Amino acid sequence: MPNRLADSTSPYLQQHAHQPVDWQPWDEAAFAEARERQVPVFLSVGYAACHWCHVMAHESFDDPEIAALLNENFVAIKVDREEHPDVDAVHMFATQALTGRGGWPMSAFLTPEGDPFFAGTYFPPEPAHGLPSFRQVVEALSQAWTERRDEVLSSASTVRGELAKLGAATQPNDALPGSRETLELLGKDYDLIHGGFGGAPKFPPPTVLDALLVKGDPTSLDMAQLTCEAMARGGVHDQLGGGFHRYSVDAGWAVPHFEKMLYDNALLLGTYCRAWRRTADHDPDKRALFERVIYGTVEFLVDELRTEQGGFAASLDADSCDIRGAVHEGIYYVWNRDLLVDALGSEDAEWAADVFHVTVPGTFEHGLSTLQLRKRVDWARLEPIMATLKKVRDERFRPARDDKVVAAWNGLLIDSLVTAALMFDEPEWLEVARACAEMVWSTHVVDGRLVRTSRDGVAGRAPGVTEDHAALALGFGQLAGATGDGVWLERATWLLDRAEELFAAEDGGWFDAEQQPTLPSRPRELTDNPTPSATATMVHALRLVGLLSGDDRLLDRSERGAATTWATVAATPRFAGWSLADALVREEARRGLRPGVAVIVDEAGDPFNELTRAAWRMAPAGTAIVTGRPGTVGFGDNFEDRGSGGRSRAYVCRGTVCFDPVDQYTELKTPLWSRC
Predict the structure, then answer these.
(1) Which of 266, 304, 385, 489 is the most buried (most CB within 10 A)?
(2) How far is CA 267 from CA 89, 264, 609, 616, in A?
(3) pLDDT of 50-103, one tens digit each?
(4) What is the mean pLDDT of residues 2-22?
């Protein structure tokens, strides 16, 4: 008989709906039952693409005896961290405070009032590697609750005090962090050999790369481009199918953790566009590599993650089955020389093994290798080989897809798709972005409120958090600028106004979510995780929408919010990439290069006219770009009294300074980059 997870829109929760554990979703009813029964809560947090979440589910939650122990002594709650990032953030903070480490699956034990008193991550079915078995943990905590409850409640009270720090107010900084000092600090963590930051495991750092690409000075540009090139050539990049895996287990980007997340690929698509435009024409190999990444990533997203409704699914699993039906991580993506011979014949296989660094001992495990591009490539010969290998790989058992649609991640993708479409003259990509935006708006706005997720066109129950409102506003703003459709700007403004109502903090920043009665604190994080901080995304969205609409209220709000991030940027720039990017834009503004608006008036309203595409390729970071017919409405006074003269014409304004209109793309750089 299914439990209460059976009607969830989360595939991860659906995977647990028929287990013997009497799982409940995160809601007040579950905590009410715990208070009525006077038993603690067991909270298990994970997500569909999490390898060890599946392992623990099979080893422990499928076990009828362990399930009986849980059901008798606890109320068991299962949470998809992608649906409830606020729940995940609070309890991850508690887990790290209690154990010194974190990760998923996350296993937390709470009082009936919701205060954590014990936490961990994966627990094995039998004691191993210094860890107790999950059964031992459950039995010990049940006994402690029964026999030493005062000690448990005292511990929970201490943890609650630590959790209060999550929502602490910041002290807005009056001084922008200096770019020289901040970039020097960032450079200390830079890997001169492999690119990226830190050692193994190594995560793609798109938000930091975006910051390094703001100014384009030689040192920053070298760090960004080396990292982009190293990732593009490494096993962390799916050489055959496009897109990127979650992270590399080594420092050299060779062997990934194989899950593929929408948010990583949405962000990296935009980053590679910005890296491509900063790459000089005299480096054609690098430009070709970055362009290949961009086209391959869009192809992966559309082919693998786009849903029937037009939105984009959350992720692909790391695991899949081999030919015998056994489940392995990464088996879908790896090769050995025999497999290459079977697919290509001996001559091409020998050449491909050398190009892709498929070795006899293997670069992965069991004699298998990821595909890497460690040397210059003869693309004319390689491309048909890659097509053959892709066709063969498509016949393997595919990784499972978590097909829920997350509002924030789709907003980030809309932003990047619009950028890519306009830079590379790809109208179909713009239509994909528009369809995605229509799907999210029509499905995720329910009774005047934004919800975070949907599945198969059905909205979920989890409320939208700050990053959902901000990322969608950013994507909608970019779409408004590209299409000249003021409806998208109106919707973006509505999202930002709702975010202000729901999440604003007294110090000028924003909380990450609304306060929940069952959460012991209200989360607020100014550093980036895999996605930009909600505050940084709000700052970017407010500036873009404010410039496009001419609404000084939004621009002022962006400035106030940005000031709450500057101390974090100065202290830990590696973990505040989009806030650093914003700070660098503001520093340039104080030197005369203020963020402005490039208005391209086109008689036909063609978003792919020559002037518009040039603007998207060359405008300074922070510039808002809008294209429309003469008299276009919905963008403040940006189109007022501005004609096209029967052709495309660009008007660039920054603050109170407007430059003479230009008709030729070769003349556009001067108004875009002149300081005033």
Answers:
(1) 266
(2) 21, 5, 26, 17
(3) 888 999 999 999 999 999 999 999 999 999 999 999 999 999 988 998 888 899
(4) 91
Q: Show the domain range for 59.
A: 4-166
CA torsion angle 421 422 423 427 (round to 10):
50
In tens, the pLDDT along 18-61 reads: 999 999 999 999 999 999 999 999 999 999 888 889 999 999 99
Q: Given 123, 144, 166, which residue is the final one in a domain?
A: 166
Count Cβ atoms below 10 Å from residue 391 Cβ, excluding itself: 11
Of 143, 166, 189, which closes a domain? 166
**Number of independent structural domains in the chain:** 3
- Report which of residues 337 and 171 the model is more confident about: 337
CA–chain centroid gap for 363, Å, is 28
CB atoms near residue 434 (< 10 Å): 20
188: pLDDT confidence band, cut at 50, 70 and 90? very high
pLDDT over 70 (residue 108): yes
Strand 624-628 with 453-455, pairing: unpaired
* Res. 173 pLDDT band, cuts 50 70 90: low
Task: Write the CA distances from 668 to 213, 306, 575, 637, integer angstroms.
Answer: 20, 36, 35, 21
Q: Find, among 515, 539, 520, 518, the residue nearest to 528 by Cα.
A: 539
Alpha carbon distance 143, 264 (integer Å): 43
Bridge-based pairing state of the strands 401-406 and 313-316: antiparallel
Cα 536 versus chain centre, distance:
13
Q: What is the pLDDT of residue 373?
A: 96
Residue 544 lies in a domain: no
Residue 86 lies in a domain: yes
Q: What are the Cα distances from residue 673, in Å, to 12, 259, 283, 300, 615?
A: 48, 41, 23, 35, 11
Would 410 be classed as within a structural domain? no
Query: With contact defined as beta carbons under 8 Å apart, do 603 and 216 qualify?
Result: no
Is residue 54 in some structural domain?
yes
